[in-house]
Structures are given as C-alpha cells and as structure tokens.
Amino acid sequence: MKIFNYSKSDNDLLFKTYFIFLASGAVSTLTGAILPEMQAEYNLSYSLRGLLLSFQQCGNLAAVFLAGFLPYLIGRKKCTILLSSGITLGIILYVLSGNPILLIIAFTLTGVGRGTLSNTSNVVVASITGNSTAGLNILHASFAMGALISPLIAALLVGRWKLTSMIFAVIMAISILLIANSSLSNEREKKEKENKIAFYRDVDFYLVSFILFFYLCSEASLMGWMVTYFTETGLLSPSNAKIMQSLIWIMILAGRIIIASISPKFKNKMVIVLALGLILVFSFLLMMSLDSKILMVISLLLVGFAMSGIYPTTISTQNPKYNKNTIATGSCMAIATLGGVLWPNVIGVVAEKYTLKNAMFTILIPLIIMNILIIFKVFRKNIENYQCR
Length: 389
Description:
Distance between the termini: 42 Å
Oligomer: single chain
Structural class: mainly alpha
Order of helices and strands: HHHHHHHHHHHHHHHH
Largest sheet: none
Strand content: under 5%
Low-confidence stretches: none
Number of helices: 16
Helix content: over 70%
C-alpha cells in the first residue's frame, strides 16, 4: 500500500508508524475517560488524580530522553519495543490495584511508552517525508483518530472501565508486534557531528520548544480533566462527557486533515498556528463561561478544531536537521512535556482548595503565554524573510 511516493519499505514503515501512533492516541485519552470511574472505585482525591496525570507526563518526559539516547546504544527498534511495552504493563497494573504507589508507577509506565512512540514516530515520518508539514499533520491526524476511539468505547462500556482498559492493552501489544516486524533500524545509530546538532545555541529551537511547552500545559490539563469536569459539575452525564471527549478529537482529526492540505500555500506556517492559538483562547473562554449546553458544546468543538494543528505545524517549523536527530527531537519534546507534567497537577491542587471550575480557568495562563510566543515567532520569521530579499 503506497501512502506517499516513496520506496516500498518506506511506505510500509509509514503505514505501520501511522497505526502505532493511532494506538498511542487511543491510550492518551483512555486515562481521562476512565478517571471518574477509577476515582469512584479507588476513592481518589483531586490532588492524587492530578498527581497521577502529572506522573504520566513525567514518564513521557523520561521517555523523550531515553528514546533520544538509547538508539545510540541498542538501536531504535529495540529501544522502541522496550520502552513502549510500558503502556501495556502500566494498564495491567492500574487495572489490578488501586494502591496509590502502584498507580503512580502504572501511570508513569504508560507515559514512558507514549513518549517513546511520540519521539520515534515523529523522527521516522520527518526522516522519510523530508520534514513535510503534510506528512507530520497526517501522523498527528492518525493520533487524533485513535484519541477519539477510546472515549467512545468507554461510553459504550460505561461502568466497566477495567474491560475498556484491557482492550487497549491488547491493541498496544499488537502495535509492539508491528514494531518488531517493521523495517525500523536494528543498528546502533551514529552520532551526528557537533555542527549538525548545535540546537542548544539556536533561539528558534527554544521558541518552538516553549510554544509546545505552554500548549501541552493546556492540552494535558484539558484532556486529563475534561470528563471529570463535565461529570462532577453536572453539566453532562458520564457517558455524554465521554462522547464529548471523542467529538473534540473528531474536530482535531478534521482540523489536521484540513491544515495538511492548506499548509503548502503558506510561506510562514506560524501564521496558521497564530490563527489557531487565538481561536483556542476565544473558544475556551466561551466554553467555560456559557450556561447554554448547546453553545457550550459548539465552543468545545471549536476548541478541538483550534487545537488540531498547533503541535504538528509548530514542529514542522523546526530546523529540519533537528527533527531528524533523536537527541534534538528528544530535547525539544522534553521541554514541551514539562508543561504536561506541571499544569494537570496545578489543576488538582487548585481544585482541592477552591473548585474544579476555578481550577480549569487557570488553563488560560499558559494559553495566553503561548500566543505571545507565537506572535514573536511570526514576526521573527517575517523579519528573516525580509532580510533575505
């Protein structure tokens, strides 16, 4: 099956990478979808739930470092198989026990697996497609497709969260087998020369990384707490809240397909990111402020569309040689993932002291800072283009 006009082995690897990232997307929304039922069974406090979501992001953070350096020691394929197995193991652990320590370990392991698949998938697609914005948006569209599946299954199997979890443990096991039977390199990777990986001296590298940092502050918090927020505030029933989580990912999927098709027409792709960032702030404010359920749902769908292209399009503006290098990619994603570690825990702490609604409003802080950085990067790019004339 040819996805792009590349060699047979490259197309096969792309197809498998897209499926694996789809499975990773399903796992990414699984915890948010089942967290209310897990809380009811295990009697988890707000602060512990926030801590679990943060430890999941800590695992993600650890993975982007490990997945950045381990390929030089054991090869990319062995590294990916080893670390991504943490997802299946983690799911099994939190299905078996509500012990807080074991839950922290379980959430951390799932984070390690997700971070590994994110690093590997982005590097593979960037390398094969030549850092194509379309290729990266299609990759993240496959993630979105997976992300909308697990809340739907959780809604269908409401009250049976352990069965839902085990379904995705099996899907991840299948993904690991696909990795094992792919053309992903088994050889130890060779380190690039210093002048090819001097990303740490590049201002633009940090701009991209911190835009993603503040984006993940908001995305991880919104996706981790959304079902709980709608359920506990009485705005939606548990099953409808999970369906809404799927609908937001349908909008993300649609948005990524649209952006993949229109992005080649834009010389400065950060203009797209800026438009999406401003829509995200506006629609999130509407969602949190409106009393009408219909208007709230419409604004939530706008949130999903606005979130669709920020991450993959921003990555595509990174220097191509960084996106093809596991250390540079890992460092960028490590900085970004710190946002996902930080803010879900902030939500839990604020909700414990005040209310969950007030805690959710704090998401505006990283969103506003993200947009300021996007504006700076847009003007920086425009100045560079003017100087090159």
